[in-house]
Amino acid sequence: MKTKVVFLALIILLLLPQNIEAQCAMCRAVLESEGNTSSAEGINNGIVYLMAIPYLLVAGVFYFVYRKMKS
How many other C-beta atoms are found inside a 10 Å radius of the C-beta of residue 52? Predict the structure, then answer.
C-alpha cells in the first residue's frame, strides 16, 4: 500500500513541471519585451528540465539506498 502511494506521488510530481513557469526576473523581462512567445516557452521548458533532472537523480539514489537497506 505504501509503495503505491509513493509511486502515485512520484507520477504526480513528474507531471507538474509541465504547468510550472520558472524564470528568473531578468530572463522574464527580456523575453516579454521581445514579444516572441515561442522563445519564452522554450526558455521556460529548458529551465524546468534543468531543475527537475537533479531531483530525479537524487530520488533515484535514495530509492536504491532504501532498497539496499531494506534487504
Answer: 16
Please state, in angstroms and rounded to a whole number, the distance separating the CA atoms of residues 68 and 37: 47
What's the domain range around 35?
2-70
Query: Domain count of the chain?
Result: 1
All 3 cell numbers of residue 47?
529551465
Contacts of 50 (CB under 8 A, 6+ apart): none
pLDDT for 14-70, tens place per residue?
Answer: 777 555 555 566 766 776 676 767 777 777 788 888 888 899 999 999 999 999 998
DSSP 8-state symbol, 19: T
The set of residues, in sequence order, having a beta carbon less than 8 Å from that of 59 and lying 6+ positions away, is 10
Q: Are 22 and 44 in contact (CB under 8 A)?
A: yes
